[in-house]
Amino acid sequence: MIQKKVCMVGTSGVGKTSLVAKFVHSMFSDKYLTTVGVKIDKKTVAVVRYDAVNAMLLNEFLKEQRKVEQQDARLAKQETIICQQQKQIEALTAVSDRLLLNNSEPQLVANDH
């Protein structure tokens, strides 16, 4: 835990005590109160640690980046499979066309009586 001390110094009647009361006790009074000597108030403040927040954000970013990389890898694999299937379709189409041509040619049958 980090501890800090604040010392307020200034001309009388400018609102130092009111400012501290507002910050420490969440109260404000427009009544003029003279403070003589030293008045000590204490408040615990929660502070955001930006290094921790940045680390969390970086982890989230890296998780998303890994997801994108995995999706890219899957997409590349699917594109390879599609390319292979396209070649197979072309080969089957060529065979089918060849069979159709062979079946459409007239057949001569020998008639030996």
Describe this structure in words.
The chain contains 2 helices and no strands. It folds into 2 domains: 59 residues, no CATH class; 38 residues. The termini are far apart. It has 113 residues and is mainly α.
Task: Supply database-style keywords.
0% strand; mainly alpha; rod-shaped; 2 domains; 113 residues
Tally the structural domains.
2
- Per DSSP, the total helix count is 2
- H/E element order: HH
Mean of pLDDT: 84
**What is the radius of gyration?**
42 Å
Shape: rod-shaped
Q: Look at the helices and sheets and give the structural class.
A: mainly alpha
Task: Describe, in short, the structure shown.
This protein has 113 residues and is an all-alpha fold.
What is the secondary structure topology, with strand pairs?
Blueprint: H1 16-25, H2 50-104
